[in-house]
Structures are given as structure tokens and as C-alpha cells.
Amino acid sequence: MSALFEPYTLRSLTIPNRVWMASMCQYSADATGPDAGAPTDWHFAHLAARATGGTGLILTEATAVSPEGRISPYDLGIWNDTQVEAFRRITGFLATQGTVSGIQLAHAGRKASTDRPWNGGGPVGPENDGWEVVGPSPVPFAEGHLVPAELSVDGIKEIVEQFAAAARRALDAGFQVAEIHGAHGYLVGQFLSPHSNHRDDEYGGSYENRVRFALEVVDAVRAVWPDDLPVFFRISATDWLDEGGWTADETVRLADELLAHGVDLLDVSSGGNAAGVRIPLRPGYQVPFAARVKAETALPVAAVGLITEPDQAEKILANGEADAVLLARELLRNPSWARQAAARLGGTVHTPPQYLRAV
User: Fold this and answer.
1) In principle, which of 38, 113, 138, 139 could form an S-S bond with 83, CB 3.0–4.6 Å?
2) 245-250: which pairs have CB atoms within 8 A and are 24 or more residues apart?
3) What is the pLDDT of residues 6-56, one digit of tens each?
């Protein structure tokens, strides 16, 4: 059997294959009003199409734990019951296709309150539904971006509680996997990196202090998430800085601690916390980071980053570099990638009976 189409079990949850969909923001929720942050028909159609295409696990876009945690006013959130009810429609349909529903819980920190990418992605103020942003330190992401208010210890504790409350709602909404977003320069990742964390209290300075917030969030989510369901953590393995940033060595060190705190899988990406860095893009360019975590720790990993071809994905798993692959843009191009890859590699995926004539 193709390694890509073997089931994968974490705790009591079996995911039907190793073709997973990475979180990708759609910037398509209502910005204000009673339905702000709730998934719409767009989100349903977008996610349902990948489920009918055979994808084994679908992770939602970064879903904010509070209104201020959104990247843009148009992001999804899970801070109220209206959002929970809207998500149930999606998770219910995905279950009918045999696809596992995962939610990425997030807080954007200093990278919050920005416009949609197709409108330039720059910061937006209150006149455009924006808000004051927060971070570990009063250091903006880039020139022209908002200067974040430095979070107090009480403010940090409040956000930890917001992650726990969001996880409770996610479970109520039908999700089976909770992923904590610690990558791409958003709040959890901002605390990890000395590039963005200039604090001199118990949340800054040493490695042990910089990872404290991440581990507190993990503990809070794990405490309310069922013991028989998995928790993932998404990490940027490196800031791609020569010095003064988060490193691959620290990623390996943190992986061991995340495992000890009840994380079941590390979703390994990179970058996003430092503006203007050069990232050497090439097919599978982030896979070596995942492979190193897998080789040096006992924590399962998923690899991501310009994985586009079935043979490429199969080789990553067959070589033991990762336990699953996460596709992003390739699934935007081709929602049925998993089914087509199965046909090529001799695997099988769920096919809706309405589509059997096309098999």
C-alpha cells in the first residue's frame, strides 16, 4: 500500500490517509455585526470541496480566540456561540465524507488588524474596523505597521484563558483535532523569538522564559480537550535570521517539551516573524526541518512547503521524513488532489457516490 494512503492514528482518532489540508486564511467572514467571525457559505463550499476530493484531515484557517486576535477584520473566530453553530454545519458535512475536522486556534498579536491581502494587507485603524494590537513587546512587525501594546502578565493570562474557552467551543462545534498556531510570527511565535520578544520578566529573555507562554497555552487547551483526541502545535522552525531569531535547534528542544505537555504532532513550517528575510524557496524546502524533529525526538510531525506532486509526497513519508504531509496552495489549485494521487499511487480514498462515474 502507498504510505500516503495508510490510515494514521493519534490517541483514539484514526485519520483515513496522510494527505492533509493546511490552514489557509480566506479573509471572507463578516467583519462586524452578529455574524462577525462566523464561517459563511464561502467557507462551507471551500472546505467541503476538499473533503469530497478525498483529503483525510482538513485544518481550518487561523481561527481567532478573540476579536482582537484576528489577523484581519475578515477572519474566522470562535469566541461566541453564533460561530459555533455555523462551524457545526461544516464539521457535520466533513464527517459524512470521512474527513477529520481540525481547527487552528490563533491569536495574531502584533500582526493583527490588517487588511485583506488583495487590498494590500496593510494595517487598518478603527475607521476601517481595526483595533489596537498587542504583543510581547512594543516592537512593530515592520515599518509602517502598528506598534503593539506590551501585554501585562494579567493580559497574558487572559489570552491563555481565551485559548481554553475557544477549545471548549471548538469541541462543541464538532472538531476532533485542535491545533495551536505557534508559527508565522503570530502571538505564540512572537513570544518564542528573541527577534520580537524583548521582555525582561518571566516571559522573556532566556529560552525557558520565551517558551513559557506557548506551554501555558498548550496546557490550557490540553486541560479542556478530551484525552482521547489529539492536539497539534504549528511551529515556524526558524525565523530565517542569521542571528537574534528563533532557530531550528530551539525547535527540536521545544518539540520534546511539547510532547511532555500532551501535544501529539508538530506541524512544521517556517518564517513569518521577521519582515524582509530571504527564504530559499524550492520544492519541499521546509521538509528537512520536519525530518530533523522526527529523527531527534519522539514527537510525530507533518511536513509542509511546496509539496505538489504525489511521488514527492510519497517519498517524504516512505523515507521517514514525516508522518503526514500538509498541502496548501496545491489544494487551492486542485481540490481533488488526494483522489488523483491515490489513482496514481495505488491507494484508495473515499469517493462520494455522486462522483463514482468519474473514477
Assistant:
1) 38
2) 245/193, 245/194, 245/195, 245/273, 245/274, 246/189, 246/192, 246/193, 246/194, 246/195, 246/273, 248/289, 248/292, 250/192, 250/207
3) 999 999 999 999 999 999 999 999 999 999 999 999 999 999 999 999 999
